[in-house]
User: Which sequence fits this backbone?
């Protein structure tokens, strides 16, 4: 408990940390990776702080001794979760200290930013023995300006990582996926000019096919700095000088713009410059709107053929983090015939988002507000806002992201409503061009009316409503599937954001018995659900749960689950189940209907 309060203290310190710095689009800059094998110390009882492990001392005098050493112990791959790297760490929830040396040659005209793609779940970062900052939240990037802390020659970087579940965390105490801990995404040292392009938001203006709005910011609040956006292929250039806050805003009219769409993933090379800085980007432009119960992409209605996956490679039983991982996950999704992915249940790595964009796959990206969140806790609310801000800040220039998801399966209460409203306010303050969505599991069958309904007035605040409904799995059918009538958010687009059931690949059994855990029952469940969905009047898309079987401590059945949620259309070893083919055919049909 004490330990967690120390973390909270350090994280609070980090909120006022003068070194916190995160230039947008680190991959478009001058950087070097600090990935690789790091030394590690497992600190189950949280003693490292007291021992000052971050000082990385070695005995010098005859009476010196230290009860730790980074040398000769455990080594862990970065990026990577620790759970999949050692059998003993499979269930580990606690602290691990990561340490590594690296050489640096700081240049006087440059600033050096230490960047972390994600650390799960909370961390304190020390450079050459000094605390430089902290972060909480396992799925979003953060960075620190370490220019004044870097030495010429050898430097020692220590990261204290803790993944203990707590009631005030997001997600909180229990969630249906593996609680991977570690430095799970790229670590980079990014070199930028002294005054650098800190941020930009370049997007198509809502409701117009040809006006690109531009907002940019330099790192220093200094007037008179020239900033520019260039799109060579369109022969367009925007130029302006910063105001006293270091900001620039404006727009470009483009007559011959080809818009990005799921079946036409057009992206343009874009060069953003400011002062001595220059960042290379690829940006696509598209409109996304709602018209009654339909979702429009570039003004045309589109039925969303969606799937979800966790950021996990089941074959490796570990977190996905690389381009190769993104290729595998997106490739399997694309084979299913999707035009959209709901990235479950948290922001996933930038490789996945950028690759999806190139492949023409629309994304629903959400923060891990997943059941069991303490909506009464002010700190938790602030954390949620930070996560939302970090997610939007990283991906606001990714046209593939069409939806920001703010919550999954929450129950109405004044506190919940207030919490989610404040998230919407934060989100829309940063980006009002996308659709805001959340997924709910409150649809019930009203026996008096004989219809499926949902009573959650919060849905009024959203553009698109997701419904997770496990008919034939958690809920027996009250009427036959083709007789099911839905009256759920009738005036809005509804996406069935989850449905499905579990089956062990290769297991045959009765099509009528849930507990057969068979591919046959799962296939029938899919047939039934799709039949029901054909009659949902405001249905704008469907998303089976889930592409791959995934690891979850929720799932203890000894022969059918063994720590795996088996709702995948594809097994943990990549084998397609019968239900995969049903979904594939359905998506083929939907595609030809458009
Ligand atoms: C849900 C959750 C999802 C679970 C799924 C299940 O409603 O949103 O995270 O994994 O159900 O398998 O029960």
Assistant:
């Amino acid at each position: 408990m004490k330990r967690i309060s120390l973390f909270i203290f350090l994280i609070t310190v980090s909120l006022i940390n003068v070194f916190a710095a995160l230039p947008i689009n680190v991959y478009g800059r001058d950087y070097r990776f600090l990935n690789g094998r790091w030394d590690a110390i497992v600190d189950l009882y949280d003693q490292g702080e007291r021992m000052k492990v971050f000082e990385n001392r070695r005995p010098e005098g005859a009476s010196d001794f230290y009860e730790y050493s980074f040398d000769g112990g455990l080594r862990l791959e970065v990026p990577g979760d620790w759970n999949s790297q050692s059998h003993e760490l499979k269930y580990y929830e606690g602290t691990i200290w990561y340490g590594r040396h690296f050489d640096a040659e700081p240049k006087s005209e440059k600033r050096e930013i230490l960047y972390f793609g994600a650390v799960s779940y909370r961390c304190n970062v020390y450079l050459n023995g000094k605390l430089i900052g902290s972060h909480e939240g396992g799925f979003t990037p953060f960075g620190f300006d370490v220019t004044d802390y870097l030495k010429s020659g050898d430097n020692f970087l220590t990261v204290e990582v803790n993944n203990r579940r707590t009631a005030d965390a997001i997600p909180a105490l229990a969630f249906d996926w593996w609680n991977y801990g570690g430095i799970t995404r790229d670590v980079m040292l990014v070199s930028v000019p002294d005054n650098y392009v800190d941020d930009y938001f370049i997007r198509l203006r809502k409701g117009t096919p040809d006006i690109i709005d531009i907002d940019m910011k330099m790192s220093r609040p200094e007037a008179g700095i020239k900033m520019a956006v260039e799109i060579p292929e369109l022969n367009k250039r925007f130029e302006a000088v910063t105001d006293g806050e270091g900001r620039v805003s404006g727009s470009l009219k483009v007559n011959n713009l080809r818009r990005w769409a799921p079946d036409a993933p057009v992206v343009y090379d874009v060069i953003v410059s400011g002062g001595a800085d220059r960042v290379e980007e690829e940006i696509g432009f598209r409109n996304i709107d709602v018209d009654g119960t339909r979702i429009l992409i570039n003004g045309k209605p589109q039925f969303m053929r969606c799937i979800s996956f966790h950021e996990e490679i089941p074959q490796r039983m570990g977190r996905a983090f690389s381009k190769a991982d993104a290729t595998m996950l997106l490739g399997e999704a694309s084979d299913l015939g999707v035009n959209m992915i709901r990235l479950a249940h948290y922001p996933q790595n930038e490789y996945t988002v950028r690759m999806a964009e190139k492949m023409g796959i629309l994304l629903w990206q959400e923060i891990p507000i997943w059941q069991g969140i303490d909506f009464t806790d002010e700190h938790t609310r602030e954390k949620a806002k930070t996560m939302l801000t970090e997610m939007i800040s990283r991906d606001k220039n990714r046209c593939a992201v069409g939806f920001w998801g703010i919550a999954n399966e929450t129950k109405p209460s004044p506190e919940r409503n207030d919490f989610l409203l404040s998230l919407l306010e934060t989100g829309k303050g940063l980006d009002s061009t996308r659709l805001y969505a959340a997924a709910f599991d409150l649809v019930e069958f009203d026996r008096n009316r004989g219809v499926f309904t949902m009573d959650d007035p919060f849905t009024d605040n959203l553009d698109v409503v997701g419904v997770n409904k496990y008919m034939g799995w958690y809920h027996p059918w009250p009427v036959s599937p083709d007789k099911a009538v839905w009256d759920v958010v009738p005036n809005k687009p509804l996406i069935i954001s989850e449905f499905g059931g579990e089956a062990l690949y290769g297991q045959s059994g009765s099509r009528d018995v849930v507990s057969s855990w068979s591919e046959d029952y799962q296939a029938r469940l899919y047939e039934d659900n799709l039949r029901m969905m054909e009659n949902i009047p405001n249905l704008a898309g469907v998303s089976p749960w889930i592409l791959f079987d995934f690891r979850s401590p929720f799932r203890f059945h000894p022969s059918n689950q063994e720590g795996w949620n088996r709702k995948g259309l594809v097994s943990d070893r990549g084998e397609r189940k019968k239900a995969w083919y049903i979904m594939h055919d359905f998506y083929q049909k939907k595609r030809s209907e458009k």
Summary: The two ends are 56 Å apart (CA to CA). The mean pLDDT is 96. The longest helix spans residues 378-395.
